[in-house]
Specification:
The protein has 67 residues and is mostly helical. The protein has a domain at 15-56. The protein contains one helix and two strands. The chain has one helix at residues 39-56, and strands spanning 15-16, 23-24. The chain has a two-stranded antiparallel sheet with strand order 1-2. β1 (15-16) and β2 (23-24) form a beta hairpin. The longest helix has 18 residues, at 39-56. It is elongated, with a radius of gyration of 20 Å.
Length: 67
């Protein structure tokens, strides 16, 4: 059974971190928990993604015409 890179617990389900090359258990997968060396890249990517989503979903004002 594989071990988590961070907590060293044996776990049948190991998931790879999207930002570094290590495998972690479900408890340690968060970048903040396992102190990912690429956490700055992750934050920049998430900020850029959120900004794009907000621009895409931006509501345009609609003018109502009286009849």
């Amino acid at each position: 059974m594989p071990k988590c890179t961070h907590c060293k617990r044996k776990n049948p389900i190991m998931l790879p971190c999207k930002w570094c090359v290590h495998d972690f258990c479900t408890r340690c997968l968060s970048c903040e928990i396992h102190v990912c060396p690429n956490i700055d890249d992750m934050r920049k990517f998430n900020l850029k993604t959120l900004e794009q989503q907000l621009l895409r979903d931006q509501v345009q004002s609609v003018r109502i015409v009286k009849l």
